[in-house]
Amino acid sequence: MSHRLSKFFLSICLGLSFIFTMTSCKQEVHDVIVENHFDSLQLAPFVESDFPFITASIDLRELGERYPGDNAVVRGLTVQLGNEAYASFDTDLLRWSVAWTGEFLDLLGMAHVSYEDFFNKKNRIPLVKGQPQMATGMYPGWTTKAFAHEDPRKPNMREGGFKWGPIPPDQAAWQGVYVNGHRVMMNYEVAGAKIEEMPGSYAFGNQVGFLRTISIEDQSQDLFLNLAEVLDGSNVEEKEGRVYLYSGPEQDTVTAVAILNGSSDISLLHKDQRFLAAQFEKTNKKTNQTLVIWSGDVANLPAFEASLDTIKVEKPVFDKGGSPYWTEAVYTKGKLSPDTAAYVSDEIILPLPNPWKRNFRAADIDFFEDGRAAVVTFSGDVWLAEGMDGDLTEIKWTRFASGLYEPMSVVVINEMIHVFGKDGIIQLHDLNGDGVADYYKNFCNLMEQSIESREWAADMVLAPDGSIFVAKGGTLNAGPKFSPLATKGFRVGSNQDGTVLKISSDGKTVTQYASGFRGPYLGMNPKTGYLTASDQQGNYVPSSPIMLINEGDYYGVPSTTHRLDTPAITKPLLWVPHNVDQSGLGQVWITGDKMGPLQDDLIHLSFGRPGLFRVLLDSTSNDVQGGISYLPGYYPAPTNKGVMNPVDGQLYVAGFNLWGSKSKVVSAMLRLRYTGAEFYLPEGFKAGQQGVILQFENELDEEMAENPGNFIVKRWNYDRTEEYGSGYFKMDGSPGQDVIPVLASHLSEDGKSVLLVVPNMNEVMQMEIDYRLTSNGQAIEDEFWLTVNDLEPLALEELGFGDVEIGDLNIDISQLDIESKSEEKPSIAKGEAIFKNMACIGCHSSGTVTKGMYGPPFQDLFGSTRTFNDGSSRKADAEYIRSSILTPDLEVVEGYDSEMPSFVGILSDTDIESLTLYIQSLSKH
């Protein structure tokens, strides 16, 4: 190349370099968050003034003598109408349940009380703080054929229970809500008629009136709209297009309704000096009408009448989308974990702080096909995130939706975001492509939801055929106690609490799939359609199980059976000891080809421990049984839900803290990343008549594997009763654990499996294997837990143990000298370790903190006088502490619920003495 040509190309390169440099200089410069600090967060209020609604339950029983008394709204779309006016629209009954002025709500719900006070669980049902102006009772807002006030919903199957859930869909159906600026438009159907309603308010003098702007299409019959119910009404006055209902002993209060623009197709009705309504006559044209409702002193009636001529209703174009509520983005940088193991957990830094001073407690995550993520928070927000792959250098977060009711699940279906909360499954639509949702469409609200806070909208998973499964929590007694007691530990919730429900792919039908749960969370194999679930230890649930769910299964909680027959209790796939996982949540199957040895495995997520577990399956000709081992890693917060990223093929996990975990971090998101290093957890197991086989990825050291002294095998059963949890019981029924001798251990022909020859194998709820092995010079010291549901002879030759002679396994193990570890002496340090390892720390403070805790604090407990719920009392001495540990239901401290498991057979006398010493050390007595 000539010198001149070289200079020419050099000038081009320099020019291009300059252009690229200038381009990069013009790129947006923004701050990147690299750490989250929940303890120093400055948060704005839960209710944001520039977003028009939240969804919440409201207890309406104490509005006053003028209003219906047996009243509550569960799925209340509560709208900020301006002029310090608010209305809560019941999306189940399609009614204005209450409208009021002044202060907003007393936000007492679970998501509300824990929004800033992160670990506060002492919730109640929200109340109206301001002045009620109108209310309707628990009957449909719209009826056909007659002006009626009967509730058409299915009765509760249990005595004393309330009717919950939506109006039967053949009568009416909630469709969703549009948002545009400070306005909302609700749309629903009644008897085939399509109705759009925009609520509003207006001020006149020092008074506020309410507006209901309604459009109706395809109306083939008369429709009746219940507007207000006044219990102390005493006189009614009718005028042209107006009705006045006077109330109070002196008739000094009036509830007025008016038709803003006169029409021959609409008229106002009243009944029994109590009910006010509007009748829309059938028509073949579109109806557009505004109704005005006001309540106040009779002295202000002339001002109300004069104000009607001043009202102007401006209706935005809702179906085209409005301006975005949130335009700013937040950028974070992830923390990569060193590649010190086969699987490491990288931390996804959350968008905290953010411009809106909004809390972020990650409940669930799912991905679009291009790798963008949708994350839902317990506070009711949905965020979008870009950049969750590679080295996590920069993750861009934007807000997409808000106002949802305690959502705990998000699934992207056909590239559309679906969120499951107590308001049902909401499908979010961005109508104008500006990155913010404009339409909150009701995909399915046919699942019943009671007002009890512990009836969680717990989980949602997508099946390969497009159907959806959801899990609903049982109505635990620890909630606000709105409903009567059902059984010990449970209130009467809806007809679907404590169930797994199957929803058709179009959201139109819901069927009960399995029942008898306390608090289930789900997993779905996207290839096979296998449905799994976990449950929580508690009343009737002796320890936390993992289950392989089939249609019609029943899992043992009587109050959540929801069947007319008395079914047999289905055995779980696996029981997990309380000290191993105090509270299990979701499951996820590893798919793709980038996760190494975990490929196609089931991963169980723990809230209580927290962390991830590998679940292994052992199939027999009659049953399936499971085993589990813990995946070591960095888990700073509970691990609630997990999902595979379709782009990088790794497992992403979201979780937040609240109910009682050994972790004290408020929320975190992680990526479980495969590094390619050697992996040493069991990859399979077999339990049979000759013993147990543990299978590994790598060859094992023969000397270690064939030394029976390197293995300790224990087994025990649980006792399923109405009490909270269970102790451990030997095969003969006595408290404790059987320690079983390993008669011999054999290495397989390929060197990757070890057979533990165990005498007197039996079906048993729990086995624990402690083992010490060596592989590739790596010492392995770990534990494996399994359940034996079915015993068959092990096919030893097929499994690589063809030359093994087993011998007689029918022996009296009580005559054998089984070496056991000598127990250390009681100590404060040992007691503190038990306090943490047994998850006591999740419910009891070692200090004096009581707010939000399930159990009383330990500081100054020893030597104090304890008063119990039955009015009795006693001194908290060593015997009291022992009794509280072994029989916690006998004496429950005043103000607390019975939610502590018995540790019979779990804690030894030395353990109890150590825990007593630790509690005593926290006291000044």
Notes on the structure:
The chain is mostly beta strands and 925 residues long. Among the domains are: 53-310, Distorted Sandwich (Beta-galactosidase, Chain A, domain 5), CATH 2.70.98; 446-572, no CATH class; 684-815, no CATH class; 828-921, Orthogonal Bundle (Cytochrome Bc1 Complex, Chain D, domain 2), CATH 1.10.760. Helices cover 8% and strands 36% of the residues. The protein has a twelve-stranded antiparallel β-sheet with strand order 15-16-17-20-13-12-11-10-30-29-28-27. The protein has an eight-stranded antiparallel β-sheet with strand order 41-42-43-44-55-54-50-51, with no helix packed on it. It has a six-stranded mixed β-sheet with strand order 1-21-26-25-24-23, with no helix packed on it. Helix 5 (828-837) crosses helix 7. It is elongated, with a radius of gyration of 31 Å. Mean pLDDT is 91; it is low at 1-26.
Class by alpha and beta content: mainly beta
Contiguous helical run count = 7
Query: Overall mean pLDDT score?
Result: 91
Strand proportion: 35-45%
**Largest beta-sheet characterization:** 12 strands, antiparallel
Keywords:
8-stranded antiparallel sheet, 57 strands, about 35% strand, disordered N terminus, Beta-galactosidase, Chain A, domain 5, mainly beta, 12-stranded antiparallel sheet
